Amino acid sequence: MIKFLKIRLSGMMFLQFFIWGAWYTSISVFMSTEEAGMAGLVHWPFTVVPLAAIVAPFFVGLIADRFFATDRVLGVLHLLGGVFMLLTPQFVHSPVIFILLLFAFNLCYMPTISLANACAFHHIEDQEKEFPLIRVFGTLGWIASGLTVSFGLIYFVGEGIQPEATALPLYLTAAASFAFAALTFSLPHTPPAAKGQAVSVRSILGIDALKVLGSKSFYTFLAASLLLCIPLAAYYAYLPVFLEAARVPNIAAVQTIGQVSEVLFMLLMPFFFVRLGIKWMLGVGMLAWFLRYVLFALGASDPTLWMILFGIALHGICYDFFFVAGQIYVDIKAGEKFRAQAQGLIVLITYGVGMLIGAQIAGYIYNLYLTGQGPLSLEQWYSFWWIPAIFSLFVFLYFIIMFNDREAEKQVKDEEVKSL
Description:
The protein contains 16 helices and no strands.
């Protein structure tokens, strides 16, 4: 019975991130086509995601966690999200409605990330050992979505047409959302985690945690996290369009190289933590973003396929060494009492505020290069990628100079040495 429960929870994680990956890695390619005619609006889907991420903690903290069973909320939100995504392609020639429907979808989707985690944590006994084995199916789901878009949907499009350039990934997302909603009927009952507990906007925003954790190094980390997510938005929004310009086939599938790398470096993190410590784990993660954008720029100038693919493969270091290591650092600083608030704060700053600012800036810069003659040339992409590269380098230098948390360094190394 316990084994079957873990299978269901793993399936939940698989679909959770299959849904996100199915549309997120291809929407910019579809919007840039002549049929859609929204090349200048590519940054907006990557704006509504962080907007929804900012709203999500309030919905979860004030409503979902207090009044409704988590499994039922998951089902309803994914059902509604599936309906919104199903409607989205019907308004491809009405950009405002198209973007608003994507926003509505993400308002339904973003709260389910933390709710799915809460559901899994409620039904397992050993979080540190069991949760990673369940969560890794989320990464596998993202990989599967990319492979499905590039290779599975190719049978439904005409010869010479990439599935990413069609609305099919959006319909695939809707279908997966409906499948998730159906799956929730098999999930065990998960009562609201904060039923009867007092909650405030201050706690949701992490203000109470910030007052306790505040130090020069912690503020440096928060500032660097926000700043790094500004160039990060350019990667998510414009990599698929760049790959198409570089004539890289199977765009969605190629991007899954990053998720494969993510799994590999996740397994290697304890080894690197002992040898690098928290400062240089975070620093290497930031530096990897600089190197990735440099590789994209140099790869565009030739174009050189191996540079582009290697830049994508750096995702494992970019994500694990910065985001995952950052979550570990926050957890160590916060302790049990302020753990939830502190983790919510870093998500709000990175995936919310940082990505929101980044999407708008990336869109502004991209549109400066965009002309009425069509997509960016490879020469223009060369110039485009140097902008986030240089910005990432300045963030790295700022962090390395300003961050010096010796207490956290000692605690991280002690704990990691014990785990080896």
